Structure formats: C-alpha cells, structure tokens
Amino acid sequence: MEQSQYNSLFSFIWNIATDVLVYAFNKGEYKRIILPMLVLRRIDVLLEPTKDQVLQMKEQLDKSRIENQAPVLYNITGYPFYNTSKFTMKTLKSEIDPMRLKMNFIEYMNGYSKDVLDIIEKLHLRQIVDNLTEAERLGSIIEKFTSDKINLSAKPVLDEEGNVLHPALDNHTVGTMFEELLRKFNEENNVTEAGEHFTPRDYVHLLADLAIIPVADKITDSTYKVYDGACGTGGILTIAQERIRQIAKERGKNAVINIYGQELLPETYATCKADLMISGQIKSFQYTFAGDEREFIAFDSTISRDGHSGETFDFCISNPPFGTPWKEDLKKRGLKETEKAKFTDSRFSIAVGSGDNQEKICFLPDISDCQMLFLANNVSRMVDDTVLGTRIVEVHNGSSLFTGDAGSGASNLRKYIIENDLLEAIIAMPEKDFYNTCIGTYIWVVTNRKAEHRKGFVQLIDATKQCTPLRKNLGEKNCETSEVDRKVILRLLTDFKETEQSKIFPNQEFGYYKVTVERPLRLTYEKLEDIELPELKNKDDVQLLQRVVEAWRKNLGGHSVDDFALFLMLEQMKVKVPASKINLVRKYLGKRDEEAEPCRVKPTKLDSPVAVDAELRDVEQVPLLYAGGIDAFMQNEVLPYAPDAFYNADEVVVGYELSFTKYFYKPVELRPIAEITADIESIEHRLKGALEDILNV
To answer: Phi/psi zone of residue 246: left (φ > 0), alpha (ψ -120 to 50 degrees), beta?
Structure first.
C-alpha cells in the first residue's frame, strides 16, 4: 500500500473517534473502543465473501446432526474462524432501533467460533456494545467501520472496469496501523504505554535478521519453532516466521515454521491472536504436547505460569518489559515480596555438581525488575541435539549488563551464560529508538552453537550512532534502524573483526572475584572509669559492662592493656563473659589502636583466628584476568597500604558484568592552551569595550 493511501485510511479511522465518540466518551476511552472495533471489523470483512456458503453448510450439518462442524466451516472460510449468525456488520447497520441493534449485535458476536469469542472477551467488546448503546453511538460507529470509503479486507476493491478503488490491506499494514493508533491515542492522553505493547517494526526486522541471517546456511527442509515469551501484538513472531521462510526459499529449502508466544495483557493478547488468525500464520491455536492440550499463544504471565512448559525452541526472540516489578508474579504463587527465595521454578535456577557437592545456583533478580527472568526463561529452552541449536535475540536496557552484585541472581545468570560460552554478542543501540522511552537499549545474542572462531570470545558492538533520523518524531522515537543500518550492524556481527565499532574479548574479561578484604581488630582499654556506660534495654548487659569496669579498676587501674590482657584478667577474676557478649565489651569499652596486638575470636587463645574490624572492611573487585590472581592483587594493590590486611579464600565469589563505557568511551580532546588564552583575551576585549560605552569613557 502506498504511503498516501495508508495515510488516508489511517486518518479515516482516527477521525471516527472525533466524529462519533466526542462528547459521549472521555478521550481516554477512545482507544478502548476504536481498536477493538477495528479488530472485529477486520475479522468480519474477511468472512463476508463466504457468508452465504457458511450458513448453507451450517444448516446441512445441523440436519445431519454433526457436532464437530468447525473443520468443515474452516475449510469454507479459508481461515481458522467463522460466524454462523445471520448478520454481518454491514447488515447490522440497517437496524434503526437502538435496543434491537444491540440485541442483533450480541447475536452476531455469539455466532463466532471459539477463538474469536475469546478475542471478544479479552477486548471487552460486550461491555463496549453496552456503553455505545447507552450513549446512542453504536449505529454510528458501525456505519463508519463499514463505509465504502475504506477497505479493511485482504483483497482490493475494484470498480466495474476492474480498476483498483481501494488497495488490499495486508496484515503487516494492519499491525503498523494498530500500533500507530495506539501510540497516537496514548500521546493525546499523555500515556506512555505504547512500548509495552509492541516493538517498532524497524527494530523487529533487525532482531529477526540477527537471529536468522548468521545461521542462514544451516536452514534445511525441516520444522523450526520460534518463541516470544512477551509477544505483545505478535509482530516479532510473524516477521521472524516470514524471514525464515524467505531465507529457506532462497536456498531451495522448504522450511515449516511454527510460532509460539505468551502475553499477559488481555487486549494485547486478543490483538495478537486476531492478527495471527487473519494472516493465516497459525492454522489452529491448539496443539498437544506431552499429552496436554495447549495454546500456541498462551495467555498469562510467562514468569508465574509457563504456557509452554518443557518446550524447547530453535529461535527465541523477545523484547521483554524492563524496569517493571514482578511482585504480582509472587502473589500468584502465594508469596510475599520478602519470600522471593521461595519462588521455585526450574527455569530460574540450575543445579551444579552432584551428590553431596551439588549446589543450586539461583537466577532470580531484584524484585523491581523482571527483564532477566525472561532471559533465563529463554536460556532454559535451548535445543541441544541439533546442528542449529538455539539462537536467542533479546532486547534489554543497560541494567541487565551490570545490575546485581556477585552472587546475586542477575550476576549468576550472566556468569552462567558467559562461562558456558553462550554469549555471542551484545549490541548497543541508539537512544530514542522506541516510542515511549529515550534510554539506550542493548540486544543480547545468545547461542549454544557458536562458530568455531567465536568460541571463548564475546563481541561488543557499538551501534549507538547507527540509525537514520525520522523527519517527524513518533512519541520519543526520533530515529529508525533502516535497511542500510541493519546491513551495517549485521556486517559488524558476521565479520567478527576489531574495529572502532566492534570489540572482541575473551569471556574472562567480564568476570571478577569479589574479595572481602579484612583488617584485624586492634583495641586497647584505658581510663575505663571515665567511660559513660550506655543505657541498654537489656539490663544484664549493663551489669556485665559494670563488672568488667570494676575488675579493670581493681586489677589494672591506671594501666592501658590490650584485648588479650583484659580478657585474661577477667578469666582469672572469674568474671564470666559469654562468647555472645565479647563484642559487647569490645564495642563499648575498647578503643581502636593501630599499635595494639590483634584481637582474637577467642580472646585468651593466641592460636585462635584474629577478630576482624567490620569498620575497616573493604570489598575489591579483582579481574579474573589479573596477572597472578587474587594473591598478586593483594600484594600489589592492598598490602603496601594496609600490611595487616587479609582475605578468606572460602568467601570469594565470582561475578560478571559488562561495561560499554569502559571499552568505547572517547574522552573529549582538550583545546590547546594558546587557543583558550586567545578566546579569553577576546572576551576581555569585548567586555572592556562594552564597559567603556556604558560609562561613556
């Protein structure tokens, strides 16, 4: 469809709101009416040519008492849906009486097959019909959507001479229109949820190409499964499906591509389902796996309810929500926010080792951001017994690269992916490439079938400047990834060379040891009679401190002693200090002294480990690639400044994080001094002249 024709159609549908709904509904309600009616009319218009045949066949099937009529009716319509009511939207508009029109519309909706009924429910169309009837707008909106001035059919409208009056409306154009309408409605109401529903099509094409092009030569006469656990309106799935088919066809292969998805939002799920039904991308929404009946597009949260449990996929392509809490998923499991550790799911953890040495590594991120859960979900679905394996292409914001300390769920996931050599590349994308956010995004490319020359390495690609400006901003979006831009990014990936935009590192480059550096606790005890004892809730603690002070005054008064001497004296005086109260005495009576002997865990045992000073504790990140490891780091970077420092090797934790700034930052060149001086002198000269003019000197 030409751009001018698209613009005309878009304007017509947009103006339905201002023509029909104005004064009867708030602007915030427009999208909740227009978009569902657009979906329903799109389905309706596709069934118009076969309406009479369906009704005739329905009558025959009823007479023959055939219960399972769906396959026969599907065959007539050519789609996985039908309507057995006597009405179409065009015939409905002939009814003038509002209540009879409402009843007829309900009968019309009830005549749809089960998948369309599911769409009607999710889009709340019955409530919409009630509201439109009450506002006396139902007939008007039907009149608009069935107007001869527009064509929502997949076939062109011709005049008597065979000339095209209105071009056919393909599914991608419908998807684009739906997304643009949603964005514009949200803009009108200062809402930013457009990006929650869909990914810009230019960005989607890049994701599909990154997933498929690098392995195009491995596509064979086979069946492939494409999955998106946050599928929105389904754009990623349909574009990826078409791309694989195209590549297979170019190579003389006949590939069958099945698509699987899951979506949480009812309206978005319904739109996705309708689009897939209309496009013919899915012939049936139901399939059987391990004896269970399932839906190719599952409804509900991917995190709390896995709609495709046990399934593995050849391609996992997603733009999951980021910066979004997942506490509602905990609630669905009957858990509180503080009970995150009880959220058990095999997708979000992995067992390493065996027997008594087996350890469970958890991938659960902070409760405030769910994006890494989607990455873990995809990693758990990798195919391990094919030449192609699985390729994951997933969009994240910058926090996925570094959020989470070593040992946390997010860091553990990065560690698992990198140490198992699954991370092929991360691509930094331009800011303002999405409709509802101006932050930069990063594309993770993950695979369990790395090319031989890539094994052991990760590629970072800086594509932040690789974009084409838009003539007019679309919300926050002011640029796009054009076909030329896609080719450049793909070339950077496939060339696998060091350039200004491409950096290649060994896997270990991004790992570090988290080392807790300890210092001994060194205390002296002096002038205890001058110490003001604290008012503690536990009176026994106060009495203990008093006994210690009295014993010191009696036996050591006037003398400064170290920790060992004090507790030895207390032991000899039979002043019992329980192990749990040793720190109490040290906290309130001791004074830090760098010259004192180290305190011991067991104060009077010189062979006991030294007690650590929590106030002097420090944490160091030692790169995995640091020459000589942790001991060399301590020798070079710590001990020259703190000779008594030490660390516990059993407490060392390995973490992983990535930083684009570290590798791609270019400092601004400083101007020469002479140039700066000349500018200052010029400014001074101008100011002097201006001052003289003011003072008339």
So the answer is: alpha
Token couple for 192? 């930013």
Query: If DSSP states are collapsed to H, E and C, what string results for 649-687?
Result: HHHCEEEECCCHHHHHCCCCCCCCHHHHHHHHHHHHHHH
Distance, in Å, from the CA atom of 133 to the CA atom of 657, rounded to the nearest integer, reads: 57
What is the per-residue DSSP string for 322-372?
-S---HHHHHHTT--GGGGGG---GGGEEEES-GGG-EEEE----TT--HH
Show contacts of 548-557: CB within 8 Å, 24+ apart. 548/575, 548/577, 548/585, 548/589, 549/589, 551/575, 552/525, 552/528, 553/528, 553/529, 556/525, 557/529
Burial of residue 654 (number of CB atoms within 10 Å: 0-12, 13-18, 19+): middle
pTM: 0.87
Sheet hosting strand 591-592, strand order edge to edge: 561-562, 523-525, 591-592
**Averaged over 559-578, what is the pLDDT?**
93
DSSP state string for 274-305: HHHHHHTS-S-SEEEETTEEEESEEES-TTTS
- Residue 375: give its domain's CATH number: 3.40.50.150
Q: Assess whether 90 and 157 both reside in one domain.
A: yes
Residue 677 maps to a domain: no
Residues 27 and 151 in one domain: yes
The predicted structure's pLDDT at residue 435: 66
Nearest to 227 by CA among 379, 39, 448: 379
Domain end, chosen from 103, 134, 169, is at: 169
Type of residue found at 248: A
Q: For residue 295, tell me if it sits in a domain.
A: yes
Tens of pLDDT, residues 367-387: 999 999 999 999 999 999 999
- Domain boundary, last residue among 614, 644, 678: 614
pLDDT band at 158 (very low <50, low <70, confident <90, very high): confident
Per-residue pLDDT, 566: 94
**Amino acid code (one letter) for 117:** L
SS3 label, residue 534: coil
Statement to judge: residues 533 and 495 lie in one domain:
no
Q: Kindly calculate the radius of gyration of the chain based on its CA atoms and give it in whole angstroms.
A: 35
